[in-house]
Amino acid sequence: MQKKIVVLTGAGVSAESGIKTFRDADGLWEGYDVMEIASPIGWEKDQKRVLEFYNQRRRQLLTVDPNSAHTALAELEKEFDVEIITQNIDDLHERAGSTKVTHLHGELLKARSTFNENLVLDWKQDIKPGDFCEFNYQLRPHVVWFGEAVPMFEKAMEIVVEADILMIIGTSMQVYPAAGLVDFTPQGIPVYFIDPKPNIQEKGNLHIIAEKASIGVPQLVQELINSA
C-alpha cells in the first residue's frame, strides 16, 4: 500500500512563478486596505473595485507557468498517494499535473453566485458588474474573504489525519485556520518544512530544508522517491 504524503503549500510556492504574494514588501495588496478588497464589507461597499482587483490577479495568473516545485510534487505521485492542501488560489499545482488538490481559500479561475455559494462556475475571463448567475444574481470571485468561513477546512482535516509524511512548503504557518492543520497529523510522523527563512527550529521528527521551494522541493522529492 502506498504511503500517504500530505503537502501544505502557501504563497512561497507560487511566488517563484511570478505570482505576487500577500505579505511581500512589494506585495500586490500594498496600497490597498485588505478589508476594502477582500471582505464582505468591502464587496458591499464597492463591488466594481473588488472585481477589478481579482480581474487583475486572474489576468496575471494566465500569463505564468508552474515552477520546478510544482512539477516535483506532481512527480511524487508516481510512488506515493499525494494530497496537496493549498492556501493558494491559483491553479499551478493542477497545471503541473497534481491530481488531488484541496484549495482552502478558493480558486481564482472560478466564479460563484452571490445567491447560492454552492453555484460555482469555471471562469477565466474578467468578472464584470452585470455578469449574473442563472438566478440573476451578481457573480463574485470564488475566494474566501476575511471574515468568511473556510468551507474546505473539514475536508483538509480529514486528509491530514491520514498522513504518513507531512511536507510544509512556502508558508509561514501563521495564517489560521490553515496553521492549525498541523495539530491534526498523527504524532511522530516525519515533517519536512521547506522555507528559505525558516521561523522554527529543527527537532525530533521535524526536518528543516532552508531553501526556496524551487530548490528544496525537487531535492526532497528525489530523496523520498529513492527511499520508497
Would you give an account of this structure?
InterPro entries: DHS-like_NAD/FAD-binding_dom, NAD-dep_sirtuin_deacylases, Sirtuin, Sirtuin_cat_small_dom_sf, Sirtuin_class_III, Ssirtuin_cat_dom. GO terms for molecular function: histone deacetylase activity, NAD-dependent; NAD+ binding; protein-malonyllysine demalonylase activity; protein-succinyllysine desuccinylase activity. Keywords: NAD, Transferase. It is a single chain. This protein has 228 residues and is α/β, with parallel strands linked by helices. It folds into two domains: 137 residues, Rossmann fold; 81 residues, SIR2/SIRT2 'Small Domain' (2-Layer Sandwich). It is built from eight helices and nine strands. β2, α6 and β3 form a beta-alpha-beta unit. It starts with a strand and ends with a helix. About 2% of the residues have low confidence.
How do the helices and strands line up, and which of them pair or pack?
Blueprint: E1 4-9, H1 11-15, H2 34-37, H3 40-45, H4 47-61, H5 68-75, E2 81-86, H6 92-96, E3 101-103, E4 106-113, E5 120-122, E6 139-143, H7 153-160, E7 165-169, E8 191-194, E9 206-209, H8 213-227
Parallel strand pairs: 1-2, 1-7, 2-3, 7-8, 8-9
Antiparallel strand pairs: 4-5, 4-6
Helix pairs in contact: 5-8
